[in-house]
User: Which sequence fits this backbone?
């Protein structure tokens, strides 16, 4: 079950998101501010973090940086009622997966979350496969062939050639 952290100082939105995500089957933790989120991110890793941009004390950009510092593969969705092109660009530069303005449609958020988590799964799978391939190729180089194996292989080649010549002469 994927773990999602919801960070928003607005209780009603935090509750709506939490309920919707739990009903969809996610494990949800919600906190009321960025300061709580940053502390929690030092103890726990989440698959997805949804954070409000403007919050007292510690804002969404700081939460985004803390997430990427603690767990670069965690997907971050930034939401805000005070959208600007500058803040959207900055969030994306810092590694946000998407940037949504409030109010938003629940269906839209569900689709974005589903796509974001799928991207995370594929990225994780890709990394694991690359590691596995690298370890297998380095293992193959370690195994190599002994001198006796090389000699046996050479004898087999000569035997095959001798047999082929014998068959041709027989015809």
Assistant:
């Amino acid at each position: 079950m994927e773990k999602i952290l919801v960070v928003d100082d607005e209780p009603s939105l935090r509750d709506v998101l939490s309920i919707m995500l739990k009903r969809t089957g996610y494990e949800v933790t919600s906190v009321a501010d960025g300061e709580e989120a940053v502390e929690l991110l030092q103890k726990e890793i989440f698959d997805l973090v949804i954070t409000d941009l403007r919050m007292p004390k510690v804002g969404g950009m700081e939460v985004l940086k803390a997430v990427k510092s603690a767990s670069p593969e965690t997907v971050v969705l930034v939401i805000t009622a005070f959208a600007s092109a500058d803040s959207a660009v900055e969030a994306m530069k810092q590694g946000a997966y998407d940037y949504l303005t409030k109010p938003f449609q629940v269906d839209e958020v569900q689709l974005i979350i589903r796509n974001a988590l799928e991207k995370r799964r594929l990225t994780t799978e890709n990394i694991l496969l690359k590691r596995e391939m690298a370890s297998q190729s380095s293992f193959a180089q370690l195994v190599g062939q002994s001198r006796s194996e090389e000699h046996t292989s050479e004898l087999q080649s000569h035997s095959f050639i001798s047999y082929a010549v014998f068959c041709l002469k027989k015809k």
User: Anything to note?
Assistant: The beta strands are 3-7, 27-31, 48-52, 75-80, 98-101. The first helix runs from residue 11 to 24. DSSP finds six helices and five strands in the chain. Residues 162-168 have pLDDT under 50 and may be disordered.
